[in-house]
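Mods, move this if it's the wrong board.
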Amino acid sequence: MKVAIPTLGKGGLDCERSGHFGHCDCFTVVDVEEGKVGAVSVIDNPPHEEGGCMRPVALLAQNGIDAIVAAGMGMRPMMGFAQAGITVYFENQTPGVGDVAQMAAAGTLPVMGEEHACHH
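Not the wrong board. Structure tokens:
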């Protein structure tokens, strides 16, 4: 499973997670195999103006991403990820990308529901 984590800076497990997936600098992508974090790669996020919150949905779908871990998102991108077959997991307390990746690999994150949606 390929899991995308919105990231500030250059990307990677030692970076800080971005609280807003649409405005992140990049997505750190971790391959999760048998409950462990495997290969790590980075996908640059284009400026938010190019397609708004739906641009990252298309970008991640094109790159074969299976899931994203977000601290929150609006209903429109949440529905877009669902239509693209990308599971959205919710986690808004942990700042480190590596720690979030471990939580995703362990399967301890809840699927994001409407109650977590941002209304902006």
